[in-house]
């Protein structure tokens, strides 16, 4: 449910909503939601000084009802 809610919020922010992908991964620290967007929309999702990303994390944390959730905005242009 959290991944769908986050995806809906991010689709409303970006210019290319068809490129938004949110994947959920569970680990020992809780759930991690990875957000992938078109390279041109990365700045919109992060926002000035990270304000938009911080706001998205706040909303997801409120929806998680106390469960540990991490939201990562993944830069798809960088290679590991």
Automatic annotation (TrEMBL):
Superkingdom of this protein's organism: Bacteria
PANTHER family: RNA-BINDING PROTEIN KHPA (PTHR34654:SF1), UPF0109 PROTEIN SCO5592 (PTHR34654)
Keywords assigned: Cytoplasm, RNA-binding
Purpose: A probable RNA-binding protein.
Locations listed in the record: Cytoplasm
Name listed for the protein in its UniProt record: RNA-binding protein KhpA
Species this protein is from: Arthrobacter oryzae
HAMAP family reported in the protein's UniProt record: KhpA (MF_00088)
